[in-house]
Amino acid sequence: MGRLKEFPLFHILGCLTFLVFGLAINTVQLVLFLSLAKINKDLYRRLNYYLMYGIYGYLLFIAEWWSGSSLTIYCDEELKQRIEKKDPEENAIILMNHHYELDWLYCWMVADRVGMVGNCRSFVKDSLKYLPILGWAGNFNDDLYIKRNLEKDKNRMQRKLKELTEFPYPVWLHLFPEGTRYTQQKYIASQEFAKSRGLPDLKHHLVPRTRGFTFTIANIDKKKMPTIYDLTMVAGLGSSAPPTLTSLIMGRKTEAVVVIRKISIDTIPEGENEGGQWMMDLFKDKDQIKNSLLNGSWQSVNESQTFTTSTLSCICKPPRTNSLIMTITVNILVLLPLLFVLLSGGVLTWIVAVLILAVSWAALHVLVSASKVKKTE
Fold first, then answer.
1. Can you say how many angstroms the Cα of residue 57 is from the centroid of all Cα atoms in its chain?
2. Which of 176, 258, 290, 349 could disulfide-link 98, Cβ–Cβ 3.0 to 4.6 Å?
3. Cβ(268)–Cβ(275) below 8 Å
4. Residues 203-213: pLDDT tens digits?
């Protein structure tokens, strides 16, 4: 079965269904944004939750069901109970190291365990808002597209941060403080920068960019956004396939471990210097946590409660069936009518079908390329 999943036709047909489904969702989002959002924004956001789940859920299917990838979570008892109930209960900012092509997908896997993947928001680089389906959906989803220039971004960020705390149900806002995905070349540049500024020598992380974080803390309503979850992720260990989108598409299992620590936002100082120092201290801890995950000493570190107030519980739950049922249904609804048209059509129909498959193949390569880690950025 593993070799069968590597057959390119499956990838092309799956991408074709994703294109049709995703563009249909974008169209519905546009119609609702131009109509319902002007009348009843809460209802618009409630409906958009399910539309976003459609897109994210399709990609979750590829990770959890097609490739069989797994995610092990270490968290406190409170979050464990929320995972059991599928109820996040409160708004939260998610801080995570940014080291793999699949960071975004692992974040959604964590969110899906809590039952809120359709209500994830992110700080995203501005150029991605033009990416069909995912980028377009993010525009309707109140994602924060930023130019990585605080002077240019701050007015829009202030407005968006206020809007996010007015949602009718909990929101998780994802922030990657390193600002770019880890590569060896970027790490060397980061070390040189840290040395020149007298900053901590991190072994496994880039120096975090603190201004965006301190701006967020200063401008968020802390009563409505009371919690930060710090996620430290390690993927690709042991028998795991490389944590890339290509591995998932080829049906190869990836394995990831994430350590989640809850932090009260009230404990974080607001000043730019004070908040920046707090972030540097956080990354010193994250560096040691990741090191323990890599060298196999995490269990003893966890039991010693060095970085937590209690020993964290280990959760390794099977994937939810929602994405499986949805993706099978969507593929049947898209591919069966196309097959019927193809079998009942003539030469022209077959030519059009070949062109459609070629477009799907090209779109698949664009999606994979967009997820790849660039060496310099």
1. 12
2. 176
3. yes
4. 999 999 888 88
